[in-house]
Design a protein that fits this description.
By secondary structure, this protein is α+β, with helices and mostly antiparallel strands. Helix content is 30%, strand content 23%. Helix 1 runs parallel beside helix 2 (33-50). Residues 17-21 have low confidence and may be disordered.
Length: 211
């Protein structure tokens, strides 16, 4: 048995009672050392996050899903339509969302007779970039079939950024390896994620290991 497989088994025995709901990955290939190492890394990170009363994100690029969790319990799961990464090899550890997406707040009519909500789920954006610390950019993109013009503009902007980053890496810039994760969500799911985010929210990315 490999060291990573042993660690996964060991964790199942040493987890505290509140962590009993931390899920082993049902899709895990026990014969793939790279997959085992990645899974054990993510479980270790989640164990630290689940030890505190907070919500956090697990972005699983293997199952193409995003889970909002607290104390290892999944509160909400969002399917990812498509994902791409840039410099995923440095996309390790726990990141924190610096600030939630900006929202254009509706104006309140003081003369209205009925109560007006200052903000609602429908006001959440469907495309946004999240700066995460340390050094990760999470881009939530619209689907081409939902917003073709916006998708074309965003895709072109990201392609230009990617070419620029590759150019800096080619010339040996020390700050060029800035990881970027792009996920495509349906409008409803993008708004749901934006609604759920809070400043400083931790997130962990489970990367694919196939090359």
């Amino acid at each position: 048995m490999s060291v990573c497989a042993f660690l996964l088994v060991l964790l199942s025995y040493v987890l505290p009672a509140w962590a009993g709901d931390i899920e082993a990955f049902s899709d895990l290939n026990l014969n793939d050392p790279a997959s085992l190492q990645e899974a054990s890394r993510v479980l270790e990170e989640e164990l630290k996050l689940a030890s505190r009363p907070q919500t956090y994100l697990i972005i699983d690029l293997v199952t193409q899903s995003l889970r909002i969790k607290s104390r290892a319990v999944t509160l909400h799961q969002i399917p990812i339509d498509r994902s791409t990464t840039l410099f995923s090899e440095v996309m390790i550890g726990t990141f924190r969302v610096v600030a939630r997406p900006a929202v254009v707040r509706r104006k309140i009519d003081p003369t209205a007779a009925i109560e007006q909500e200052p903000i609602s789920l429908a006001d959440m954006p469907i495309h946004y970039e999240l700066s995460c610390s340390p050094g990760l950019t999470l881009v939530v993109m619209p689907r081409a079939m939902d917003h073709p013009l916006q998708w074309t503009w965003v895709s072109g902007h990201l392609l230009w950024r990617q070419l620029t980053d590759w150019g800096l890496t080619w010339y040996g810039s020390p700050n060029a390896r800035h990881p970027v994760l792009r996920i495509t969500l349906s409008p409803d799911h993008a708004q749901s994620l934006a609604w759920s985010l809070v400043d400083g929210m931790p997130l962990v990315v489970r990367r694919t290991t196939d090359r």
